[in-house]
Specification:
The chain is mainly β. It is built from no helices and 21 strands. Strands 2, 3, 6, 8, 9, 11 and 13 form a 7-stranded antiparallel sheet that branches. Strands 15-20-19-18 form a 4-stranded mixed sheet, with no helix packed on it. Strands 10-7-12 form a 3-stranded antiparallel sheet, with no helix packed on it.
Length: 345
């Protein structure tokens, strides 16, 4: 394994989706110096989804409640591995006040500096063509001396356009403009598209994002989903209950924990995917059947609300001569007293 050095009532609690890869993302570290190209961010750095300070139209980025801001005489460095396809030319661009670096380590351990620029007003580009599929070392840095900082011109400094100081593409583009920025990409992992890692994954498959489900209390939904093998671009589509119309090399399991379910796939014994596995989770929103009542009616949902519980209620009332209301008293079209109460005990 390659490693780097050093009605309807719906209630759901906050959850964290299971991650399919070993340590996806890059090491990040704020370094002293306007353009520090030597210190190793994996030495004492933190793991983030990508090159945060190089993936914004400003000089700061907020991630998981913490805001990272470029200071004077400071460099934000990012280091890890980037999966690249052999024979495909990768193009890179920099637009950052002041400095930017893109450095790649090939599969033989050779360092290739693609961009090393210290001119805030320039927009340099560079390219790299890997010989074969694999995980290539990636070293990304943006730095500032004093004064202005961050991307300086469109589409780099525009929140509704590229909004990044460093970017890449495999579409043959050698410049980034306001008319083609959609074909450039940030150095950021997203759900279903993780290509940056702190170490080489030990497996290649991933369960893609599964939408939230709505079910009655007591039911355990088992929706269909898709598994992709990002190494060779193959995928498998599973129906409800993990069924498949064709033979697959994967076993499927659903694991339930309250209002959350985790889907896990594992490579079948004897298959090319033996020993590999991947998981992803989804939220289950619970609902109750409709009720008819002329008096006070309580519905026991079986869920104790917490500080992060979300409640969504839909009502369907029937117009009648006697009138109906959701909460409180009054005719169906003039009811003015509505209340949703929580018993903290």
């Amino acid at each position: 394994m390659k490693k780097l050095a050093s009605g309807l009532v719906c209630l759901a609690a906050a959850f964290a989706a299971a991650t399919a890869f070993a340590d996806p993302g890059l090491f990040q570290k704020a370094l002293s110096g306007a353009f520090n190209t030597t210190d190793d961010p994996s030495d004492g750095g933190i793991v983030v989804p990508g090159a945060l300070l190089a993936s914004t139209h400003t000089s700061s980025y907020t991630y998981e409640g913490t805001t990272y801001t470029m200071g004077d005489n400071q460099t934000y460095a990012y280091k890890g591995l980037m999966f690249m396809k052999g024979g495909v030319t990768y193009y890179f661009v920099k637009n950052y006040d002041d400095n930017g670096l893109v450095r790649i380590t090939d599969l033989d351990g050779n360092e290739v500096t693609v961009i090393n620029n210290t001119a805030f007003s320039q927009v340099p580009t560079g390219s790299f063509t890997p010989e074969s599929d694999g995980y290539y070392g990636i070293d990304l840095r943006v730095g500032n001396g004093s004064g202005g900082k961050g991307p300086t011109t469109a589409p780099f400094n525009n929140a509704s356009q590229l909004a990044a100081g460093l970017a890449w593409n495999t579409n043959g583009l050698t410049s980034c403009t306001t008319s083609n920025y959609q074909q450039w990409r940030k150095f950021m992992n997203t759900e279903g598209d993780e290509f940056l890692f702190t170490e080489e994954p030990s497996y290649n498959i991933k369960v893609l994002k599964i939408p939230s489900q709505v079910s009655l209390f007591g039911e355990q939904p088992a929706p269909g989903f898709v598994v992709t093998n990002y190494m060779d671009d193959t995928s498998w589509t599973f129906g409800p209950g993990g069924t498949s119309a064709v033979e697959t090399p994967l076993d499927v399991a659903y694991t339930y924990d309250g209002n959350r379910c985790t889907v896990t796939v594992t490579g079948k014994a004897g298959s090319a995917l033996e020993g590999m596995s991947s998981s992803n989770s989804f939220v289950i929103y619970r609902r109750v059947k409709s009720i008819t009542s002329t008096g006070t009616q309580y519905i026991d949902t079986g869920i104790v609300p917490g500080p992060t519980t979300a409640v969504e209620m839909h009502f369907n009332t029937t117009n009648s001569a006697n009138g109906t209301s959701w909460f409180g008293a009054g005719a169906w079209n003039t009811a003015s007293s509505y209340q949703l109460s929580q018993n903290d005990t």
